[in-house]
Amino acid sequence: AGASTPHLKIGAGGVAHLCRDLGLDPVDIRVLLLAWLCRAREMCAFTEAELRRGCAALRQAEAPTADGLRAALDARLDAMTVDVAFKDLYRWAFDFGLESGQRTLQLPMATDLWALVFEARPSGVPPLLGAWLTWLQSGASGVKGVSRDTWNMFLTFIDTCGSDLSAYDHNEAWPSLIDDFVEAETDRANQNLLNC
Amino acid sequence: VAARPSMNRNAPNAIGGGASGGGGSGGGSNNSYSKMRIKAFPMSMDERYVNQIWDQLKRAIQEIQKKNNSGLSFEELYRNAYTLVLHKYGEKLYSGTRDVVAEHMAKIKDDVLASVNNVFLATLNSLWKDHQTAMVMIRDILMYMDRVYVNQQNLPSVYNMGLTVFKEQVVRHPVVCEHLRNTLLEMVARERRGESIARSQIKDACNMLCQLGVDSLQVYEEDFEQAFLKQSRDFYRSESDDFLAENCSASLYIKKVESRMAEEMERARHYLDRSTEPKIIAVLEEELISRHMRTIVEMESSGLVSMLRADKHEDIHCMYRLLQRVPDGVKIMTDCISTYLREQGKAIVAEENREPSAYVQALLDLRDRCDCLLAQALNRDRLFKQQISSDFEYFVNLNVRSPEYLSLFIDEKLRRGSRGAAADNEIEPLLDKCMVLFRYLQEKDVFEKYYKQHLAKRLILNKSSSDDTEKSMISKLKAECGCQFTSKLEGMLKDMTVSNMLNEEFGNYLSQAGGAGAQRSIDFGLRVLTTGFWPTQTTQNKVALPDEARQAYDQFHRFYMSKHSGRQLTLQPNMGTADLSATFSGAPPSGRGAEAADEPSSTSNSLAVGARRRYILSVSTYQMVVLLQFNRRPKITFEQLQAETNIPEKDLQRALGALCMQKMASQRFLNKEPRTKEISSTDEFTVNDAFYSRHVKIKVAPSGGVKETEPERRETRIKVDEDRKYEIEAAIVRIMKARQTLSHNYLIAQVIEQLKSRFTPTPQAIKSRIEHLMDRDYIKRSDQDRHYYQYVA
């Protein structure tokens, strides 16, 4: 219904309405997917142009309906088999999460987005993600925000060392936040070994 | 074949053939006087004739061998040999000679064997000599054969053949061989035990063996040298073991080794073959030195460490000379010295509560000891030099306060009137030694910070003993670190000079200006500091100066602005001093405080007789402000002081502390109620009328030269870390701008390289700065390769 009204922009209320129509939880991955396909600039808001773009991407440009959109989104999620596309979604998510004028993503927003976006990953949610988020939320990292470079590099990190932390080399050009995480993780694993 | 023109048949003097009938002059029946015909020499000699000649020669040889050569005609024998060879009987001659020689050898051998139990060596040597002489003569006779036949047939020359026969028959005879060897070895062993022996006999025997090898020393080596070396090895192995078991003294052992080595060298030169010298020395080096070097270096109470402790340079030098000969010998010494040195150095730097000057002096003394050691005992060997330098670098940096202490030490030396100030002629070499220590510092930027602070205090409080010495020190630092290090220091010095000039000019300005505002209310001088040069100050507040001071400053301000209109002057109340005339009444505090007179004309310093006492107090600016408060009110609390003066709390506490914390009542200028150790905001202050001093002028302001308290040190360290962040970032940007694209590891390496003369950044610190710069878009990660960075223009 929101898509058919000629408002220039729909705000948070409108987005909530849209989600209801689509039968989706606002924090569902498919909503994020929709925002991405729309190349939405802001969270909780869509401009008309953005919505049009999204519908076109979902091949629902002609007479879009809620059900049609929903089906298309489901299909699109399933079709996310290519890492390249996921990478695009992932990187875009950083900008999406930024508050206006900010260059660094606030930590709570970063953790939320991380928890969400990996659901679209072709090879599934990485096992390390849980540990990563726990560590970040514990405050042990000491940082309040995440830089773009760190955000981008995290994906590379998951792809290269996600399954085997022993392959990690802190002398390489990894962001220092990830250095600290790996150190904490290996310490924790060693502790567990000692305690067994 | 010699072809001679046959000039005359049957000429009696024709060579070869000669008077005997044999090879007469056959052909040539057609000769006439006019024609010269070349005829081949008669080629055949009959058998009988040949044998005759040969027998003659044989007998001659035998006579020679019997040393009966005086009756022989060399010329005739030579001629005979010549004839034989000419007529192609060289083979007969040669083998015949060999047989004769061999026959004779058998006889010699018997003689030698007979002498085995009795003057064996002498006999052998004399028989050998005889043989040599005989062979020489035989060779001379047979020289033509040597030259022609022997060469053609590639046979050994006559003389060499004689050697070989002698060798095979006599010397290599099993009994002779063994007996010879044993005799020689026995003699050497006896000499080593201290007996004297017939050296010439050994010499002759060795000579013989050498010659018997013909063109090589093989006979000598096989028959004697190898056994000699083995015996020597065994001998010295057990001698050194025994010696060390009995005597636990490294220096004694070393002396013994030296004497044995000298002895063996002399032996080799005197009566063995020269070629043996390096070999026997090698044996000694291995058995006496290599095998035991660790033991003697590490020996308790006499090894290298105890020598070092007692500065026994002579002994160390002997040890060094000795150990130099063998591989790894020097390394054992350097390792031992290194361990000792590090232990000494650690002890110096680890001691708590040591005063900075004692600390640095101890390090300098240690360095002096090392220099002495290097010069006198170690020949300034490069390996030792390097090891010592690296040891110093190790322990000097164990204590993070080393840079501060070094700066304080230098400060003391450069300050006028301090206890440790150096005499004029001593100062330069002392500063050079300080520079040696400076080079070991890994955190040179920390030193720079402290040096600046201390220099600033010296200059402002006018405590520098000599401008030239200050400049000299700065130029030393410049030579070491480049002008970036010292440009600010030089600026500070310049500011002083300029300020002096300014004060003069200000004086002139005042006296010329005349009229209103020209009169100086108080005597004062100002120093103008260029902000960028001096240590950063954090105070920019408005301290409430007393009116007189404020007026004076305003006067100067007007004057200065008239000269330099574009500049900005800010008074720094945290620096500066003031001389106050203070009067204390002798009566106990009665609410009537002292009068701190500041009338302009107050110049009399005389001690008032009786109860009222007048002093001149030399105080800091803050203290001046505080004290002058007591002209208005007799009793003031800390809080009130703070409010009235606007002095920052910490500075106020420090200023008051120097005025009221003295132990004895007569030393205090102010009294504090309650008399607790800390100053709290409700404490009350009053003038201490019971103050008394023998001196008229009393200094209250601290004159610097004190090491920082722990909190101050932490603050300085924070500043240093901040500065380092900027320096690292500047280096990163510089490098990336030049290279445009660079890998992560290479960038880190380059940054460390560029900054190593100031401090050593860790890779993590550099990484953190890289991220910071990435965030601010100075550089970015390459899209192609995540290990590379790119410069963002």
From TrEMBL, chain A:
UniProt cross-references to Gene3D superfamilies, sorted A to Z: Cullin, PONY binding domain, EF-hand
Protein name: Defective in cullin neddylation protein
Database matches in InterPro entries: DCN-prot (IPR014764), DCN1-like_PONY (IPR042460), PONY_dom (IPR005176)
Residue intervals of the DCUN1 domain: 1-186
Biological processes, Gene Ontology terms: positive regulation of protein neddylation; protein neddylation
PANTHER family: DCN1-LIKE PROTEIN 3, RP42 RELATED
Domain of life, source organism: Eukaryota
Protein task: Neddylation of cullins play an essential role in the regulation of SCF-type complexes activity.
Signal peptide: none
The organism of origin for this protein: Macrostomum lignano
GO cellular component terms, semicolon-separated: plasma membrane; ubiquitin ligase complex
Molecular function, one GO term: ubiquitin conjugating enzyme binding
From TrEMBL, chain B:
Region: Disordered, residue numbers: 1-29, 579-605
Molecular function in Gene Ontology: ubiquitin protein ligase binding
Pathway(s) this gene product operates in, as recorded in its UniProt entry: Protein modification; protein ubiquitination
Keywords: Isopeptide bond, Nucleus, Ubl conjugation
Compositionally biased tracts (Gly residues): 15-29
Compartments, as annotated in UniProt: Nucleus
Source species of the chain: Macrostomum lignano
Predominant subcellular localization, coarse grouping: nucleus
Cullin family profile domain location: 401-660
Protein's recorded name: Cullin family profile domain-containing protein
